[in-house]
Amino acid sequence: MFSYSISAALDVKFFTDYTNIALIVIALVSGALLLWPAIARRGRGGISAAEATTLINRRNAVVVDLRPAAEFAKGHLPAARNIEFAEIQAKIGQIAKNKNNPVVLVCQTGQQSQRASRTVSEAGYAEVHVLEGGLDAWQKAGMPVVKQGAVK
């Protein structure tokens, strides 16, 4: 019984010492900052241009460009299919034959793709991704864009 009271007294002293409290707070804040990118990405659902390239090359992801046909003709990701945002609900079955294939949705800035991702997911596609920042981010990353049959 005597050893228990000494141990309890040491535990209380550890948590009341300001130096230890500061170290505990620093450890908790560091852990939260390390986890923040994973937590933030999960909520957004967006992927970078490099991650999209990996999905396209390694897992045969289907790329769907949601911009109007005129914008699509000016430049788009290689092998992208054009289904305008306004028509996504009507043409949802044309995205991919296998609903287990990854789908990457692209628009100009990523905002329309984010809204369309809910519709595509609800249609039964297992893995739906949004290109974060859209075609703008793709081009800023120096990735290729197809324009009138030529790669730019």
Shape: elongated
CATH topology of the largest domain: Oxidized Rhodanese, domain 1
Q: What CATH architecture of the largest domain would you give? A: 3-Layer(aba) Sandwich
Q: Which regions have little confidence, pLDDT < 50, spanning 5+ residues?
A: none
- Please, what is the CATH homologous superfamily of the largest domain? Rhodanese-like domain
Strand order, biggest sheet? 1-5-4-2-3
Integer average pLDDT: 86
Could you tell me the radius of gyration in angstroms? 24 Å
Could you spell the SSE succession in H and E letters? HHEHEHEEHEHEE
Q: How many domains make up the coordinates?
A: 2
**Count, helices:** 6
The level-1 CATH class of the largest domain: Alpha Beta
End-to-end separation = 79 Å
The helix content is 40-55%
Oligomeric grouping of the chains: single chain
What does the largest sheet look like?
5 strands, parallel
Total strands: the figure is 7
Beta content comes to: 5-15%
The computed structural class is: alpha/beta
Question: Which tags fit this structure?
Answer:
51% helix; elongated; 13% strand; 5-stranded parallel β-sheet; Oxidized Rhodanese, domain 1; single chain; 6 helices; alpha/beta; 152 residues
Descriptive notes:
Helix content is about 50%, strand content about 15%. With about 150 residues, it is α/β, with parallel strands linked by helices. The chain folds into two domains: about 1-45, no CATH class; about 45-150, Rhodanese-like domain (Oxidized Rhodanese, domain 1). Strands 1-5-4-2-3 form a five-stranded parallel β-sheet. The mean pLDDT is about 85. Keywords: Membrane, Transmembrane, Transmembrane helix.
